[in-house]
């Protein structure tokens, strides 16, 4: 299957979420292809999971002046700073979309290989270390899911999904360095001090390559045309830049 690969770029929270949304819409309209991109956050941003309540973030003073956006995917909030984010959309007939955990495992295991090439040992957290029950922390990276990728017990990669009839979006964050606002969350540079500190765009090519291979896709570089960007910005304006969406819960 061909996969349209968008160029790596940086954007603010509403733009990043709108492009992921646009990718999902695009695969729904053309289910013969998949889409993939990596990106950065030009403004450090707290993304709330679709089902989270704004009051959870308001209760912590450090988030009161932070940029915020609400994702279309579930899970805990993520502080997007000093990380690489990926987004992958597969049509519903792809074999890895049948069970949610299959795509999580394929993607996360592929990134284990990228980390190993840099001398970093990562592993799936597994069921025995997962958090049980409904009591969840605000931040995704403080939670413990069986599918998390961990280094020395600390979460370095978490992903979330949005399924619509005809396609599945999965996006996730690889934490590269500790942010000053979340000192309790170590990044790869802190967990593997012998590894070189690299900017997000230095990771992008390797991550894209292994993800394409892991899910059996052929790369088709895609120029993000002006008209397509306008479609994505229209989604951002209507949804992700809207207080009605961000504060809906």
| Helix segment tally | 7
Distance between the termini: 38 Å
Coarse shape: globular
What's the number of domains? 1
Structural class: alpha/beta
CA radius of gyration is 17 Å
Work out the strand percent: 25-35%
Q: Give the C-level CATH assignment.
A: Alpha Beta
CATH fold group: BirA Bifunctional Protein, domain 2
Main β sheet profile: 9 strands, mixed
Mean pLDDT value: 95
> Mind telling me the CATH superfamily name?
Bira Bifunctional Protein, Domain 2
User: Which architecture would the CATH scheme give at its second level?
Assistant: 2-Layer Sandwich
Name the helix and strand elements from N-terminus to C-terminus, one letter apiece: EEHEEHEEEHEEEEHHEHH
Low-confidence stretches: none
Helix share of residues?
A: 25-40%
* Number of beta strands: 12
Describe the structure.
By secondary structure, the protein is α/β, with parallel strands linked by helices. It has a single domain, classed as 2-Layer Sandwich (BirA Bifunctional Protein, domain 2), CATH 3.30.930. The chain has 7 helices and 12 strands. The strands form 2 sheets. Strands 1, 2, 3, 7, 8, 9, 10, 11 and 12 form a 9-stranded mixed sheet that branches. Helix 1 packs across helix 6. The protein is globular, with a radius of gyration of 17 Å. The relative contact order is 0.21.
């Amino acid at each position: 299957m061909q996969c349209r690969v968008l160029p790596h770029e940086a954007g603010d929270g509403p733009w990043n979420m709108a492009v992921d949304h646009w990718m999902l819409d695009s695969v729904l309209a053309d289910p013969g292809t998949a889409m993939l991109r990596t990106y950065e956050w030009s403004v450090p941003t707290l993304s709330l999971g679709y089902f989270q309540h704004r009051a959870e973030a308001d209760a912590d003073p450090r988030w009161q002046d932070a940029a915020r956006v609400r994702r279309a995917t579930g899970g805990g909030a993520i502080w997007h700073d000093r990380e690489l984010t990926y987004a992958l959309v597969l049509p519903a007939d792809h074999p890895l979309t049948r069970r949610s955990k299959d795509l999580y495992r394929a993607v996360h295991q592929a990134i284990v290989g990228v980390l190993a090439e840099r001398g970093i040992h990562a592993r799936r957290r597994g069921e025995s270390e997962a958090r049980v029950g409904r009591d969840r922390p605000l931040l995704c990276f403080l939670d413990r899911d069986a599918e998390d990728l961990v280094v020395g017990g600390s979460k370095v990669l978490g992903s979330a999904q949005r399924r619509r009839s005809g396609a599945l979006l999965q996006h996730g964050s690889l934490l590269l360095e500790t942010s000053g606002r979340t000192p309790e969350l170590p990044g790869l540079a802190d967990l593997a001090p012998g590894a070189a500190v690299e900017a997000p765009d230095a990771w992008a090519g390797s991550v894209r390559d292994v993800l394409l291979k892991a899910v059996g896709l052929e790369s088709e570089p895609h120029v993000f045309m002006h008209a397509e960007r306008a479609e994505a910005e229209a989604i951002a304006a209507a949804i992700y830049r809207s207080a009605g969406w961000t504060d809906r819960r």
